[in-house]
Design a protein that fits this description.
heterodimer, A: 295 residues, ABC transporter involved in vitamin B12 uptake, BtuC, B: 253 residues, 2 domains, 6-stranded mixed β-sheet, 3-stranded antiparallel β-sheet, 8 helices
């Protein structure tokens, strides 16, 4: 017991634990919308895109949150804009835009060197790099995300389920998409310090997929995913300290372990519910084949 | 004749210089029950989008009478049936901007129950949308559309991919709604199953080629122009029945 409580004596750990738990809850909740929109890959892509902003802001001496945040938001909006057009899938849009941004970031750092936060911490996450400012920024982003989801719940749900019908029912789909991309960019940006570029996508996707396996109700999925995200963050951060492994790694592994347990307990029966999660939900007003293929 | 809910005058629209609608004139009256008849690519969906205000005509004009509320029912085949949403949650989606908090108010819950009750599926509120029959799924989306209290209901291929019993169920439901004062426009390429039972048809292939009752529109020469294939039309109990002559020839010979 003493060993388990030992890290709580260190303020850096407590700050890291708060950030990991809040970040897990934040990514868990936003991840529900991302996963159901068939944009699971966006977390991976956007974190890489933000790395381009990280590099650029480091070189020109701009605040990391401002530079990388703006960069990430513009990338997210570009992805959303391109993928809403007929003829190009969301995954293709994400692949083109974000890998180009990541490559640009590496090129900038190769030319000018890193003058900002640690390169390794940005890639893999570190509890040592968490400052009090990071904690407050993350709490601010979490409160903002909570407000956005609460006040726009039905619009977000409607556009996620069926953007075309939402649009003709009076929802400003472009506005809702932009708002979600803003929250997503801010969430990734404020969690990168602990989880890292390479693993942040998993914190968006894994809790939402587990939650989908456990419920057929949207609001329950939102709650379950948030709780699983927070639990993964809390447990993962503790494991990170005791096993001396980067925090992003343990947080993601805890999520994966929960996935494995749910899969084992349900005997894979609920896995079919996740089948369409890689399809873009934004379906056009034209016929597409296969209805109720599995009833 | 009363003031039309929607008036289309010489409406033309195209994608990448390819015309999809040409010089379309259409009046939609408060009592209208019209089937837009045509094959895939004939401009049916584009016409619906124009009526919905989703696209602006490149030529011509579309006017809507003040206070006209239009609701849209999507094609069942375009719906993601794996989406984690129950019938009640799906219907409630159309209550946009009515409330600042996510959960439904007691008044909203009553409203949802009322509209589902009207459509005979009030007891299915807590079911997942996948766990409904085709007819119940169609009723659910109609319930979502009705929650907006529309004067005009647009349905995209409402009987596509459903069985005969569901087709009858949907048709009778739409007839009831029309009797209750809701104008109905639907698209279909189902000649015998749906089009022949509607009070009014518009045959569309980029242009409107014919308009009137099924007896006026379901004619061999019209069908050949619209569908690009020769078809025979028989009469059965005063209704036109379309026969594919190639299938009949194969069977005979």
């Amino acid at each position: 017991m003493t060993t388990l409580l030992e890290p709580f004596a260190y303020s850096f750990f407590v700050k890291g634990l708060i950030v990991a738990t809040v970040a897990g809850a934040l990514c868990g909740s936003i991840g529900v919308f991302i996963v159901l929109r068939g944009m699971s890959y966006i977390g991976h892509g956007l974190s890489h895109a933000i790395f381009g902003g990280f590099a650029a802001s480091s070189v020109i001496g701009l605040n990391y949150y401002l530079g990388a945040g703006l960069w990430g938001l513009l990338s997210a909006l570009a992805i959303q804009k391109v993928s809403r057009r007929r003829g190009i899938s969301a995954d293709a849009a994400i692949g083109v835009i974000t890998t180009a941004s990541f490559a640009l970031g590496i090129a900038i750092l190769t030319f000018y060197g890193n003058k900002g936060p640690s390169f390794d911490a940005a890639l893999f996450g570190s509890i040592l790099g968490v400052t009090t400012t990071d904690v407050w920024i993350l709490v601010g982003v979490a409160v903002f995300a909570l407000l956005v989801v609460t006040l726009n719940y039905r619009r977000l749900l409607f556009t996620t389920f069926d953007a075309d019908v939402a649009a003709v029912s009076g929802v400003n789909v472009g506005h809702v998409d932009a708002l979600l991309m803003l929250v997503l960019s801010l969430s990734i940006l404020s969690t990168l310090t602990v989880i890292g570029v390479t693993l942040v996508a998993a914190t968006l996707v894994v809790p939402a997929v587990i939650a989908r396996m456990l419920t057929v109700s949207f609001h329950r999925m939102l709650i379950i995913s948030t709780v699983i995200g927070a639990t993964s963050g809390f447990v993962g951060m503790n494991l990170s300290y005791h096993l001396d492994v980067p925090s992003g790694t343990t947080i993601v592994l805890v999520g994966a372990a929960i996935f494995g347990i749910v899969l084992a307990v349900t005997g894979g029966r609920t896995l079919r519910r996740t089948r369409d999660l890689d399809d873009v939900v934004d379906l056009p007003l034209v016929p597409v084949p296969s209805r109720n293929a599995e009833r | 004749m009363s003031t039309p809910l929607i008036e289309l005058r010489q409406v033309s629209f195209g994608y990448d210089a390819r015309p999809v609608l040409l010089d379309v004139d259409l009046d939609i009256q408060p009592s209208s029950f019209i089937g837009i008849l045509g094959p895939s690519g004939s401009g049916k969906t584009t016409l619906l989008r124009a009526i919905l205000g989703q696209i602006r005509p490149q030529r011509g004009s579309i006017s809507r009478a003040p206070g006209t509320a239009v609701s849209y029912v999507p094609q069942l085949e375009t719906v993601n049936w794996n989406f984690p949403v129950t019938v009640g949650q799906c219907v409630l989606m159309s209550r946009i901007g009515k409330r600042l908090v996510p959960w439904a108010s007691p008044a909203e819950r009553r409203l949802v129950t009322q509209v589902l009750d009207r459509l005979g599926i009030a007891d299915l509120q807590d079911r997942h949308i996948r766990d409904l029959s085709g007819g119940q799924q169609q009723r659910m989306f109609i319930a979502r559309a009705l929650l907006r209290d529309p004067s005009l209901l647009l349905l995209d291929e409402p009987t596509s991919g459903v069985d005969v019993a569901t087709r009858h169920e949907v048709l009778h439901l739409l007839q009831d709604l029309n009797s209750d004062g809701i104008a109905i426009i639907l698209t279909t390429h189902d000649l015998n199953g749906l089009a022949a039972h509607l009070p009014e048809l518009v045959a569309l292939r980029t242009r409107i080629l014919a308009r009137g009752t099924p007896e006026d529109v379901v004619k061999p020469w019209v069908l050949e122009q619209v569908f690009g294939a020769r078809m025979e039309v028989l009469q059965h109990l005063g209704m036109p029945v379309v026969v594919d002559p190639f299938a009949a020839d194969r069977r005979a010979g």
